[in-house]
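your task:
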Amino acid sequence: MGEKAKLNKQSTTKGFAILTAASFLVKFLSLLYVPFLGKILGDIGIGVYASAYNIFTYIYILTNAGIPVAISKIVSELIALGNYKDAVKTFKIARFLLFILGMIMSILMLIFVSPIANLTNSAPSKLAIMALAPTILLTSVLSAYRGYFQGRGNMTPTAVSQVFEQVANTVFSLVFAACFIKYGVEAGAAGGTIGTSVGALVAVIYMIRFYEKNKVFRVPKGYNQLGIKRFTTKKIIKKLLGVAIPMTICLGIQQSGLFIDLWLVKSRMISFGMTKVQADVLWGVLFKYTTLINVPIAIISSLAITILPSISSLMALRDKKAVRNKINYAFRLCFLVAVPCAVGLAVLAGPVVNLIQYGSSVARLLIYGSVVILLMAVVSIQTSILQGIGKVYLVTVYAFFGIIGKIITNYIFVAIPSINILGAIMGNAVSFAILLILNYITINKVLKIKIKLLSHAIKPILASVVMAIIAKLMYSNFNYIFSYVKEGYFANAIALLISIVFAIVTYFFTLVLLGGLSKEDLDVLPSRITKIVPKSILGRLK
Protein backbone atom coordinates (compact mmCIF):
# COMPACT_ATOMS: atom_id res chain seq x y z
CA MET A 1 0.00 0.00 0.00
CA GLY A 2 1.32 3.48 -0.91
CA GLU A 3 2.19 6.14 1.62
CA LYS A 4 -0.89 8.24 0.75
CA ALA A 5 -3.13 5.24 1.29
CA LYS A 6 -1.53 4.52 4.66
CA LEU A 7 -2.06 8.08 5.81
CA ASN A 8 -5.59 7.93 4.49
CA LYS A 9 -6.32 4.78 6.49
CA GLN A 10 -4.84 6.28 9.64
CA SER A 11 -6.97 9.40 9.28
CA THR A 12 -10.04 7.24 8.70
CA THR A 13 -9.39 5.27 11.88
CA LYS A 14 -8.82 8.40 13.95
CA GLY A 15 -11.84 10.17 12.45
CA PHE A 16 -14.02 7.15 13.08
CA ALA A 17 -12.86 6.97 16.70
CA ILE A 18 -13.60 10.67 17.29
CA LEU A 19 -17.03 10.59 15.67
CA THR A 20 -17.90 7.30 17.38
CA ALA A 21 -17.19 8.72 20.82
CA ALA A 22 -19.27 11.81 20.08
CA SER A 23 -22.12 9.85 18.49
CA PHE A 24 -22.28 7.46 21.42
CA LEU A 25 -22.46 10.33 23.90
CA VAL A 26 -25.10 12.12 21.82
CA LYS A 27 -27.31 9.04 21.50
CA PHE A 28 -26.81 8.21 25.17
CA LEU A 29 -28.15 11.66 26.05
CA SER A 30 -31.08 11.02 23.68
CA LEU A 31 -31.86 7.81 25.53
CA LEU A 32 -31.75 9.60 28.85
CA TYR A 33 -33.96 12.53 28.01
CA VAL A 34 -36.74 10.66 26.16
CA PRO A 35 -38.03 8.92 29.36
CA PHE A 36 -38.09 12.27 31.17
CA LEU A 37 -39.86 13.84 28.22
CA GLY A 38 -42.32 10.95 28.29
CA LYS A 39 -43.02 11.60 31.98
CA ILE A 40 -43.78 15.24 31.21
CA LEU A 41 -45.85 14.71 28.04
CA GLY A 42 -47.44 11.29 28.74
CA ASP A 43 -47.97 8.52 26.18
CA ILE A 44 -50.22 10.59 23.94
CA GLY A 45 -47.91 13.62 24.13
CA ILE A 46 -44.81 11.62 23.21
CA GLY A 47 -46.72 10.24 20.20
CA VAL A 48 -47.56 13.79 19.08
CA TYR A 49 -43.94 14.84 19.62
CA ALA A 50 -42.66 11.82 17.67
CA SER A 51 -44.96 12.57 14.72
CA ALA A 52 -43.77 16.20 14.52
CA TYR A 53 -40.14 15.18 14.86
CA ASN A 54 -40.40 12.62 12.07
CA ILE A 55 -41.90 15.23 9.76
CA PHE A 56 -39.08 17.63 10.69
CA THR A 57 -36.50 14.89 10.09
CA TYR A 58 -37.80 14.31 6.59
CA ILE A 59 -37.76 18.01 5.67
CA TYR A 60 -34.31 18.28 7.24
CA ILE A 61 -33.07 15.46 5.00
CA LEU A 62 -34.57 17.04 1.86
CA THR A 63 -32.84 20.31 2.72
CA ASN A 64 -29.53 19.21 4.18
CA ALA A 65 -28.71 15.69 3.07
CA GLY A 66 -27.40 16.23 -0.44
CA ILE A 67 -25.23 19.36 -0.41
CA PRO A 68 -23.13 18.51 2.72
CA VAL A 69 -22.31 15.10 1.17
CA ALA A 70 -21.37 16.92 -2.04
CA ILE A 71 -19.18 19.36 -0.07
CA SER A 72 -17.37 16.53 1.70
CA LYS A 73 -16.84 14.58 -1.54
CA ILE A 74 -15.73 17.49 -3.73
CA VAL A 75 -13.55 19.19 -1.08
CA SER A 76 -11.72 15.90 -0.39
CA GLU A 77 -11.14 15.39 -4.14
CA LEU A 78 -9.83 18.94 -4.61
CA ILE A 79 -7.52 18.67 -1.61
CA ALA A 80 -6.17 15.33 -2.90
CA LEU A 81 -5.31 17.13 -6.17
CA GLY A 82 -3.73 20.09 -4.32
CA ASN A 83 -6.46 22.56 -5.36
CA TYR A 84 -6.89 24.24 -1.94
CA LYS A 85 -8.33 27.53 -3.24
CA ASP A 86 -11.23 25.83 -5.00
CA ALA A 87 -11.83 23.63 -1.95
CA VAL A 88 -12.54 26.79 0.08
CA LYS A 89 -14.48 28.32 -2.81
CA THR A 90 -16.66 25.19 -2.99
CA PHE A 91 -17.50 25.50 0.71
CA LYS A 92 -18.43 29.20 0.46
CA ILE A 93 -20.69 28.63 -2.54
CA ALA A 94 -22.35 25.63 -0.86
CA ARG A 95 -22.82 27.55 2.40
CA PHE A 96 -24.68 30.31 0.52
CA LEU A 97 -26.86 27.79 -1.34
CA LEU A 98 -27.72 26.00 1.91
CA PHE A 99 -28.57 29.26 3.65
CA ILE A 100 -31.03 30.23 0.89
CA LEU A 101 -32.49 26.71 0.71
CA GLY A 102 -32.82 26.50 4.50
CA MET A 103 -34.66 29.83 4.64
CA ILE A 104 -37.07 28.79 1.86
CA MET A 105 -37.83 25.41 3.46
CA SER A 106 -38.39 26.97 6.90
CA ILE A 107 -40.93 29.41 5.42
CA LEU A 108 -42.68 26.67 3.43
CA MET A 109 -42.82 24.51 6.57
CA LEU A 110 -44.70 27.31 8.37
CA ILE A 111 -47.02 28.07 5.45
CA PHE A 112 -48.01 24.46 4.72
CA VAL A 113 -48.06 23.17 8.30
CA SER A 114 -51.76 22.22 8.19
CA PRO A 115 -51.67 20.18 4.95
CA ILE A 116 -48.48 18.41 6.08
CA ALA A 117 -49.96 17.48 9.46
CA ASN A 118 -53.28 16.34 8.00
CA LEU A 119 -51.63 14.33 5.24
CA THR A 120 -49.67 12.29 7.79
CA ASN A 121 -52.55 11.78 10.24
CA SER A 122 -50.73 14.10 12.64
CA ALA A 123 -53.12 17.05 13.10
CA PRO A 124 -52.28 17.48 16.85
CA SER A 125 -48.62 18.01 15.86
CA LYS A 126 -49.16 21.37 14.11
CA LEU A 127 -47.73 23.52 16.91
CA ALA A 128 -44.70 21.25 17.30
CA ILE A 129 -44.03 21.35 13.52
CA MET A 130 -44.18 25.16 13.58
CA ALA A 131 -41.77 25.27 16.52
CA LEU A 132 -39.31 23.12 14.56
CA ALA A 133 -39.42 25.28 11.40
CA PRO A 134 -36.55 27.68 12.36
CA THR A 135 -34.32 24.67 13.02
CA ILE A 136 -34.20 23.90 9.29
CA LEU A 137 -32.42 27.19 8.57
CA LEU A 138 -29.95 26.73 11.44
CA THR A 139 -29.15 23.12 10.55
CA SER A 140 -28.63 24.09 6.90
CA VAL A 141 -25.81 26.46 7.83
CA LEU A 142 -24.49 23.91 10.31
CA SER A 143 -24.42 21.16 7.67
CA ALA A 144 -22.27 23.30 5.36
CA TYR A 145 -19.55 23.69 7.98
CA ARG A 146 -19.66 20.01 8.94
CA GLY A 147 -19.44 18.88 5.32
CA TYR A 148 -16.44 21.17 4.74
CA PHE A 149 -14.39 19.90 7.67
CA GLN A 150 -15.32 16.29 6.93
CA GLY A 151 -13.99 16.85 3.42
CA ARG A 152 -10.76 18.14 4.97
CA GLY A 153 -10.52 14.92 7.00
CA ASN A 154 -11.06 16.75 10.30
CA MET A 155 -13.89 15.09 12.22
CA THR A 156 -13.25 16.90 15.53
CA PRO A 157 -15.42 20.01 14.90
CA THR A 158 -18.34 17.82 13.76
CA ALA A 159 -17.98 15.64 16.85
CA VAL A 160 -17.73 18.54 19.32
CA SER A 161 -20.61 20.44 17.71
CA GLN A 162 -22.80 17.31 17.92
CA VAL A 163 -22.17 17.04 21.67
CA PHE A 164 -22.88 20.76 22.27
CA GLU A 165 -26.02 20.51 20.16
CA GLN A 166 -27.39 17.50 22.02
CA VAL A 167 -26.62 18.87 25.50
CA ALA A 168 -28.46 22.11 24.72
CA ASN A 169 -31.27 20.15 23.04
CA THR A 170 -31.72 17.88 26.07
CA VAL A 171 -31.80 20.69 28.65
CA PHE A 172 -34.02 23.14 26.79
CA SER A 173 -36.42 20.49 25.44
CA LEU A 174 -37.22 19.31 28.96
CA VAL A 175 -37.47 22.84 30.35
CA PHE A 176 -39.84 24.13 27.67
CA ALA A 177 -41.91 20.93 27.66
CA ALA A 178 -42.42 21.29 31.41
CA CYS A 179 -43.33 24.98 31.02
CA PHE A 180 -45.83 24.48 28.18
CA ILE A 181 -47.54 21.21 29.19
CA LYS A 182 -49.92 23.16 31.45
CA TYR A 183 -51.47 24.60 28.27
CA GLY A 184 -52.23 21.11 26.91
CA VAL A 185 -50.56 18.13 25.24
CA GLU A 186 -50.09 19.89 21.89
CA ALA A 187 -48.39 22.88 23.51
CA GLY A 188 -46.22 20.59 25.65
CA ALA A 189 -45.08 18.65 22.57
CA ALA A 190 -44.25 21.97 20.86
CA GLY A 191 -42.25 23.02 23.91
CA GLY A 192 -40.33 19.76 23.73
CA THR A 193 -39.14 20.64 20.22
CA ILE A 194 -37.76 24.11 21.08
CA GLY A 195 -34.56 22.57 22.42
CA THR A 196 -33.80 21.30 18.90
CA SER A 197 -33.58 24.88 17.61
CA VAL A 198 -31.51 26.03 20.59
CA GLY A 199 -29.13 23.08 20.18
CA ALA A 200 -28.67 23.84 16.47
CA LEU A 201 -27.95 27.51 17.27
CA VAL A 202 -25.29 26.57 19.83
CA ALA A 203 -23.65 24.18 17.33
CA VAL A 204 -23.69 26.83 14.55
CA ILE A 205 -21.96 29.37 16.80
CA TYR A 206 -19.27 26.82 17.71
CA MET A 207 -18.68 25.84 14.05
CA ILE A 208 -18.37 29.46 12.89
CA ARG A 209 -15.82 30.19 15.64
CA PHE A 210 -13.87 27.02 14.79
CA TYR A 211 -13.85 27.90 11.10
CA GLU A 212 -12.53 31.41 11.73
CA LYS A 213 -9.64 29.96 13.73
CA ASN A 214 -8.85 27.09 11.31
CA LYS A 215 -9.73 28.32 7.81
CA VAL A 216 -6.13 28.55 6.57
CA PHE A 217 -4.73 25.40 4.90
CA ARG A 218 -1.35 23.98 5.83
CA VAL A 219 0.24 23.84 2.39
CA PRO A 220 2.90 21.10 1.83
CA LYS A 221 6.52 22.16 1.22
CA GLY A 222 7.31 22.77 -2.43
CA TYR A 223 3.66 23.32 -3.31
CA ASN A 224 3.16 25.14 -6.59
CA GLN A 225 -0.35 26.31 -7.44
CA LEU A 226 0.59 27.32 -10.99
CA GLY A 227 0.12 23.76 -12.25
CA ILE A 228 -3.29 23.36 -10.60
CA LYS A 229 -6.41 23.40 -12.79
CA ARG A 230 -8.87 25.97 -11.36
CA PHE A 231 -12.68 25.82 -11.64
CA THR A 232 -15.14 28.62 -12.35
CA THR A 233 -18.04 29.33 -10.00
CA LYS A 234 -20.43 27.88 -12.60
CA LYS A 235 -18.38 24.67 -12.80
CA ILE A 236 -18.29 24.28 -8.99
CA ILE A 237 -22.07 24.80 -8.71
CA LYS A 238 -22.54 22.19 -11.46
CA LYS A 239 -20.29 19.73 -9.60
CA LEU A 240 -22.11 20.40 -6.30
CA LEU A 241 -25.56 19.95 -7.81
CA GLY A 242 -24.38 16.90 -9.78
CA VAL A 243 -23.79 15.12 -6.46
CA ALA A 244 -26.34 16.91 -4.26
CA ILE A 245 -29.47 16.45 -6.42
CA PRO A 246 -29.29 12.65 -6.84
CA MET A 247 -28.22 12.28 -3.20
CA THR A 248 -31.15 14.38 -2.00
CA ILE A 249 -33.56 12.37 -4.15
CA CYS A 250 -32.01 9.13 -2.90
CA LEU A 251 -32.16 10.02 0.78
CA GLY A 252 -35.57 11.61 0.27
CA ILE A 253 -36.86 8.30 -1.11
CA GLN A 254 -35.16 6.28 1.65
CA GLN A 255 -36.46 8.52 4.40
CA SER A 256 -39.91 8.76 2.88
CA GLY A 257 -40.29 5.65 4.97
CA LEU A 258 -40.95 8.06 7.83
CA PHE A 259 -43.94 9.52 6.00
CA ILE A 260 -45.03 6.08 4.87
CA ASP A 261 -44.98 4.92 8.48
CA LEU A 262 -46.85 8.04 9.65
CA TRP A 263 -49.52 7.76 6.95
CA LEU A 264 -49.73 4.09 6.01
CA VAL A 265 -48.92 2.45 9.35
CA LYS A 266 -51.32 4.62 11.30
CA SER A 267 -54.11 4.27 8.73
CA ARG A 268 -53.66 0.48 8.54
CA MET A 269 -53.82 0.14 12.33
CA ILE A 270 -56.97 2.25 12.38
CA SER A 271 -58.41 0.08 9.58
CA PHE A 272 -58.57 -2.97 11.86
CA GLY A 273 -60.37 -1.10 14.65
CA MET A 274 -57.80 1.01 16.53
CA THR A 275 -58.66 4.56 17.55
CA LYS A 276 -56.41 7.49 16.54
CA VAL A 277 -55.33 7.84 20.17
CA GLN A 278 -54.31 4.16 20.33
CA ALA A 279 -52.41 4.54 17.04
CA ASP A 280 -50.58 7.61 18.44
CA VAL A 281 -49.59 5.64 21.56
CA LEU A 282 -48.19 2.79 19.44
CA TRP A 283 -46.41 5.35 17.29
CA GLY A 284 -44.74 6.61 20.47
CA VAL A 285 -43.59 3.03 21.16
CA LEU A 286 -42.06 2.85 17.67
CA PHE A 287 -40.34 6.19 18.28
CA LYS A 288 -38.73 4.86 21.47
CA TYR A 289 -37.56 1.74 19.64
CA THR A 290 -36.04 3.92 16.91
CA THR A 291 -34.27 6.04 19.53
CA LEU A 292 -32.68 2.89 20.97
CA ILE A 293 -31.44 1.38 17.72
CA ASN A 294 -30.09 4.76 16.65
CA VAL A 295 -27.30 4.35 19.23
CA PRO A 296 -25.42 1.61 17.33
CA ILE A 297 -26.52 3.04 13.97
CA ALA A 298 -24.95 6.38 14.91
CA ILE A 299 -21.61 4.62 15.44
CA ILE A 300 -21.78 3.02 11.99
CA SER A 301 -22.89 6.33 10.49
CA SER A 302 -19.68 7.81 11.90
CA LEU A 303 -17.73 5.25 9.89
CA ALA A 304 -19.82 6.02 6.78
CA ILE A 305 -19.19 9.77 7.17
CA THR A 306 -15.47 9.13 7.55
CA ILE A 307 -15.18 6.65 4.69
CA LEU A 308 -16.81 8.88 2.02
CA PRO A 309 -14.13 11.62 1.73
CA SER A 310 -11.30 9.10 2.01
CA ILE A 311 -12.66 6.95 -0.85
CA SER A 312 -13.40 10.07 -2.91
CA SER A 313 -9.81 11.30 -2.52
CA LEU A 314 -8.37 7.87 -3.41
CA MET A 315 -10.60 7.71 -6.51
CA ALA A 316 -9.36 11.19 -7.49
CA LEU A 317 -5.81 9.81 -7.24
CA ARG A 318 -6.93 6.72 -9.25
CA ASP A 319 -5.55 4.41 -6.54
CA LYS A 320 -7.98 1.50 -6.99
CA LYS A 321 -5.93 -0.90 -4.88
CA ALA A 322 -6.16 1.48 -1.92
CA VAL A 323 -9.89 1.85 -2.58
CA ARG A 324 -10.37 -1.92 -2.35
CA ASN A 325 -8.35 -2.06 0.88
CA LYS A 326 -10.38 0.82 2.27
CA ILE A 327 -13.67 -0.93 1.44
CA ASN A 328 -12.64 -4.19 3.07
CA TYR A 329 -11.39 -2.29 6.11
CA ALA A 330 -14.71 -0.44 6.39
CA PHE A 331 -16.78 -3.63 6.24
CA ARG A 332 -14.56 -5.28 8.87
CA LEU A 333 -15.10 -2.38 11.27
CA CYS A 334 -18.80 -2.33 10.40
CA PHE A 335 -19.36 -5.96 11.40
CA LEU A 336 -17.06 -5.70 14.44
CA VAL A 337 -19.37 -2.99 15.84
CA ALA A 338 -22.82 -3.78 14.39
CA VAL A 339 -23.05 -7.52 15.11
CA PRO A 340 -22.42 -7.39 18.90
CA CYS A 341 -24.69 -4.32 19.20
CA ALA A 342 -27.56 -6.11 17.43
CA VAL A 343 -27.11 -9.35 19.36
CA GLY A 344 -26.59 -7.57 22.67
CA LEU A 345 -29.73 -5.44 22.33
CA ALA A 346 -31.79 -8.49 21.36
CA VAL A 347 -30.58 -10.62 24.29
CA LEU A 348 -30.80 -7.84 26.89
CA ALA A 349 -33.84 -6.07 25.43
CA GLY A 350 -35.98 -6.47 28.54
CA PRO A 351 -33.38 -5.23 31.07
CA VAL A 352 -32.34 -2.31 28.81
CA VAL A 353 -35.92 -1.15 28.34
CA ASN A 354 -36.60 -1.50 32.09
CA LEU A 355 -33.51 0.58 32.88
CA ILE A 356 -34.56 3.53 30.74
CA GLN A 357 -38.25 2.91 31.52
CA TYR A 358 -39.47 2.70 27.93
CA GLY A 359 -42.12 0.06 28.62
CA SER A 360 -42.31 -3.65 27.83
CA SER A 361 -43.83 -3.01 24.38
CA VAL A 362 -40.52 -1.53 23.22
CA ALA A 363 -38.64 -4.69 24.30
CA ARG A 364 -40.74 -6.80 21.89
CA LEU A 365 -39.89 -4.49 19.02
CA LEU A 366 -36.21 -4.49 20.00
CA ILE A 367 -35.92 -8.28 20.00
CA TYR A 368 -37.36 -8.64 16.50
CA GLY A 369 -35.96 -5.36 15.18
CA SER A 370 -32.32 -5.96 16.13
CA VAL A 371 -31.74 -7.55 12.71
CA VAL A 372 -32.55 -4.15 11.18
CA ILE A 373 -29.46 -2.74 12.94
CA LEU A 374 -27.21 -5.08 10.99
CA LEU A 375 -28.95 -4.44 7.66
CA MET A 376 -28.90 -0.65 8.15
CA ALA A 377 -25.23 -0.74 9.14
CA VAL A 378 -24.13 -2.61 6.01
CA VAL A 379 -26.31 -0.47 3.72
CA SER A 380 -24.92 2.72 5.32
CA ILE A 381 -21.35 1.68 4.46
CA GLN A 382 -22.35 0.48 0.99
CA THR A 383 -24.08 3.80 0.26
CA SER A 384 -20.97 5.80 1.24
CA ILE A 385 -18.83 3.54 -0.96
CA LEU A 386 -21.11 4.02 -3.97
CA GLN A 387 -21.14 7.78 -3.37
CA GLY A 388 -17.36 7.79 -3.11
CA ILE A 389 -16.91 5.98 -6.44
CA GLY A 390 -19.39 8.27 -8.18
CA LYS A 391 -22.45 5.98 -8.42
CA VAL A 392 -24.90 8.43 -6.81
CA TYR A 393 -27.64 7.90 -9.43
CA LEU A 394 -27.67 4.14 -8.92
CA VAL A 395 -28.05 4.66 -5.17
CA THR A 396 -31.13 6.75 -5.96
CA VAL A 397 -32.68 4.08 -8.17
CA TYR A 398 -32.04 1.38 -5.58
CA ALA A 399 -33.65 3.51 -2.87
CA PHE A 400 -36.85 3.52 -4.94
CA PHE A 401 -36.92 -0.29 -5.09
CA GLY A 402 -36.31 -0.46 -1.34
CA ILE A 403 -39.20 1.85 -0.52
CA ILE A 404 -41.57 -0.17 -2.77
CA GLY A 405 -40.67 -3.27 -0.76
CA LYS A 406 -41.37 -1.37 2.45
CA ILE A 407 -44.80 -0.14 1.30
CA ILE A 408 -45.95 -3.62 0.28
CA THR A 409 -44.71 -5.19 3.52
CA ASN A 410 -46.24 -2.48 5.71
CA TYR A 411 -49.58 -2.68 3.93
CA ILE A 412 -49.85 -6.44 4.39
CA PHE A 413 -48.55 -6.94 7.92
CA VAL A 414 -49.49 -3.79 9.91
CA ALA A 415 -53.20 -4.52 9.44
CA ILE A 416 -52.82 -7.95 11.09
CA PRO A 417 -53.89 -7.27 14.73
CA SER A 418 -51.37 -9.67 16.27
CA ILE A 419 -48.51 -7.94 14.41
CA ASN A 420 -49.65 -4.23 14.17
CA ILE A 421 -46.68 -1.88 14.76
CA LEU A 422 -44.19 -4.74 14.33
CA GLY A 423 -45.15 -4.64 10.66
CA ALA A 424 -43.32 -1.30 10.32
CA ILE A 425 -40.11 -2.98 11.47
CA MET A 426 -40.67 -5.84 9.04
CA GLY A 427 -41.06 -3.24 6.30
CA ASN A 428 -37.73 -1.65 7.26
CA ALA A 429 -36.02 -5.05 7.21
CA VAL A 430 -37.33 -5.85 3.72
CA SER A 431 -36.38 -2.39 2.43
CA PHE A 432 -32.78 -2.56 3.66
CA ALA A 433 -32.39 -6.19 2.55
CA ILE A 434 -33.28 -5.14 -1.02
CA LEU A 435 -30.78 -2.26 -0.85
CA LEU A 436 -28.06 -4.51 0.57
CA ILE A 437 -28.36 -7.02 -2.28
CA LEU A 438 -28.45 -4.40 -5.05
CA ASN A 439 -25.56 -2.39 -3.55
CA TYR A 440 -23.49 -5.55 -3.09
CA ILE A 441 -23.87 -6.57 -6.73
CA THR A 442 -22.97 -3.08 -7.97
CA ILE A 443 -19.86 -2.62 -5.81
CA ASN A 444 -18.47 -5.99 -6.87
CA LYS A 445 -19.25 -5.29 -10.53
CA VAL A 446 -17.90 -1.72 -10.71
CA LEU A 447 -14.68 -2.34 -8.77
CA LYS A 448 -14.25 -5.83 -10.25
CA ILE A 449 -13.71 -7.38 -6.84
CA LYS A 450 -15.45 -10.04 -4.79
CA ILE A 451 -16.28 -8.63 -1.39
CA LYS A 452 -17.31 -11.56 0.73
CA LEU A 453 -19.50 -9.98 3.39
CA LEU A 454 -19.99 -13.28 5.22
CA SER A 455 -16.23 -13.74 5.62
CA HIS A 456 -16.06 -10.35 7.37
CA ALA A 457 -19.11 -11.18 9.50
CA ILE A 458 -18.52 -14.79 10.55
CA LYS A 459 -16.00 -14.18 13.37
CA PRO A 460 -17.96 -11.27 14.91
CA ILE A 461 -21.11 -13.47 14.74
CA LEU A 462 -19.40 -16.40 16.53
CA ALA A 463 -17.91 -14.08 19.16
CA SER A 464 -21.32 -12.41 19.63
CA VAL A 465 -23.03 -15.78 20.21
CA VAL A 466 -20.56 -16.56 23.02
CA MET A 467 -21.02 -13.02 24.32
CA ALA A 468 -24.82 -13.42 24.32
CA ILE A 469 -24.69 -16.64 26.36
CA ILE A 470 -22.37 -15.08 28.95
CA ALA A 471 -24.40 -11.85 29.11
CA LYS A 472 -27.67 -13.72 29.64
CA LEU A 473 -26.18 -15.93 32.36
CA MET A 474 -24.55 -12.98 34.13
CA TYR A 475 -27.73 -10.93 34.09
CA SER A 476 -29.95 -13.76 35.38
CA ASN A 477 -27.59 -14.66 38.21
CA PHE A 478 -26.74 -11.14 39.35
CA ASN A 479 -30.34 -9.94 39.09
CA TYR A 480 -31.33 -12.87 41.35
CA ILE A 481 -28.53 -12.07 43.84
CA PHE A 482 -29.19 -8.30 44.01
CA SER A 483 -32.94 -8.81 44.34
CA TYR A 484 -32.23 -9.92 47.95
CA VAL A 485 -30.73 -6.47 48.60
CA LYS A 486 -33.34 -4.41 46.80
CA GLU A 487 -35.82 -5.80 44.33
CA GLY A 488 -36.90 -4.09 41.14
CA TYR A 489 -35.12 -1.19 39.41
CA PHE A 490 -31.92 -1.29 41.50
CA ALA A 491 -31.33 -5.02 41.00
CA ASN A 492 -32.00 -4.72 37.26
CA ALA A 493 -29.65 -1.74 36.84
CA ILE A 494 -26.69 -3.30 38.67
CA ALA A 495 -27.16 -6.71 37.05
CA LEU A 496 -27.41 -5.11 33.60
CA LEU A 497 -24.26 -3.03 34.13
CA ILE A 498 -22.27 -6.08 35.24
CA SER A 499 -23.57 -8.24 32.39
CA ILE A 500 -22.63 -5.53 29.84
CA VAL A 501 -19.06 -5.37 31.21
CA PHE A 502 -18.78 -9.16 31.04
CA ALA A 503 -20.28 -9.11 27.53
CA ILE A 504 -17.72 -6.60 26.23
CA VAL A 505 -14.77 -8.48 27.76
CA THR A 506 -16.09 -11.83 26.47
CA TYR A 507 -16.59 -10.46 22.95
CA PHE A 508 -13.09 -8.97 22.85
CA PHE A 509 -11.28 -12.07 24.09
CA THR A 510 -13.34 -14.43 21.92
CA LEU A 511 -12.51 -12.32 18.88
CA VAL A 512 -8.80 -12.47 19.72
CA LEU A 513 -8.95 -16.27 20.10
CA LEU A 514 -10.77 -16.56 16.77
CA GLY A 515 -8.25 -14.30 15.03
CA GLY A 516 -10.94 -11.76 14.23
CA LEU A 517 -9.09 -8.73 15.59
CA SER A 518 -5.95 -6.99 14.35
CA LYS A 519 -3.61 -4.42 15.91
CA GLU A 520 -4.96 -1.89 13.42
CA ASP A 521 -8.49 -2.37 14.80
CA LEU A 522 -7.31 -1.30 18.25
CA ASP A 523 -6.49 2.15 16.85
CA VAL A 524 -10.19 2.92 17.13
CA LEU A 525 -9.97 2.57 20.92
CA PRO A 526 -8.52 5.29 23.19
CA SER A 527 -4.88 4.70 24.13
CA ARG A 528 -5.82 4.47 27.83
CA ILE A 529 -7.88 1.38 27.07
CA THR A 530 -5.33 -0.29 24.80
CA LYS A 531 -2.64 0.18 27.46
CA ILE A 532 -4.47 -2.11 29.89
CA VAL A 533 -4.72 -4.92 27.33
CA PRO A 534 -2.27 -7.68 28.40
CA LYS A 535 0.85 -8.02 26.25
CA SER A 536 0.09 -11.73 25.81
CA ILE A 537 -3.15 -10.70 24.06
CA LEU A 538 -1.48 -8.03 21.94
CA GLY A 539 1.08 -10.63 20.88
CA ARG A 540 -1.68 -12.73 19.31
CA LEU A 541 -2.84 -9.84 17.11
CA LYS A 542 -1.55 -9.49 13.57
Residues 3-215+233-451 form one domain. Confidence is low (pLDDT under 50) at residues 1-10. The chain has 18 helices and no strands. The first helix runs from residue 3 to 64.
